[in-house]
Design goal:
6 helices, mainly alpha
């Protein structure tokens, strides 16, 4: 299995379709590189186990054929070869289990790291929000709420002392309805008043300020005056 660990960088580059010298373009973190390496070894180990299992089956079938042909020694040899393959399969499966466990650990670490980053970012946001909501603002809100409660308690106590039902809102609802109707009527009257004013407006034509109309008599008088001045 040692040869599986010799060309990891080249395998990663091939995995992403890059040349060996372009490996820096991957821009992977050490954790990501480790995860990819483990997965590449895992896949190669699975392929290796499949190959060994195929060869083990072939050796067993050959041993059967040799036995049919009464070639005992050749059958024994093929069974020993099968045993060799089975031992290699067993070792590879143990290695595969270790690699699979390592992948699980790396992926869990990766998730934990991402969760930690999210928590740190959330904490920063919470700290910023807490700074924005100062103690003074909370005190102001608290004072307003306390004032509202005191006013409400005063009204409730008055109702209780006078044997009135605080929860009976029939007359209040009626008054609110009347107020809404009054507001609606005022708005309607306002709209009607605007419509009437708009109807009474008469549009006048625009006067052309650049044109000054002079009466013919005025023109004639002005000419006579000019003549007298010239004569004199």
């Amino acid at each position: 299995m040692e040869y599986f660990f010799t060309n990891i960088k080249e395998s990663i580059s091939n995995f992403f379709g890059l040349n060996y010298e372009d490996e820096n373009k991957l821009n992977l973190s050490p954790l990501e590189k480790s995860l990819i390496e483990c997965k590449l070894i895992r896949d190669k180990t699975k392929h290796y186990i499949t190959k060994l299992e195929k060869e083990s089956i072939e050796s067993k079938n050959k041993a059967k054929e040799y036995l049919k042909n009464n070639k005992i020694e050749r059958a024994k040899f093929e069974l020993k070869r099968k045993k060799m393959y089975d031992i290699q399969i067993s070792k590879s499966e143990k290695q595969l289990f270790i690699i699979s466990q390592k992948i699980i650990e790396i992926e869990k670490t990766q998730i934990d790291s991402e969760v930690l980053k999210i928590l740190e970012s959330s904490n920063e946001i919470l700290i910023k929000l807490k700074n924005e909501v100062s103690v003074e603002k909370w005190e102001i809100i608290g004072d307003e709420m306390e004032q509202i409660k005191m006013e409400q308690d005063e009204v409730i106590n008055f109702f209780n002392k006078n044997n009135l039902n605080y929860e009976d809102n029939r007359d209040i609802d009626k008054e609110i309805e009347n107020m809404l109707n009054e507001e609606k009527e005022m708005n309607e009257n306002k709209i009607n008043f605007n419509d009437i004013n708009n109807e009474n407006i008469v549009e006048l034509p625009d006067a052309n300020k650049n044109e000054i109309v002079i009466d013919d008599n005025v023109k004639e008088n002005n000419l006579n005056k000019e003549k007298k001045i010239l004569i004199n």
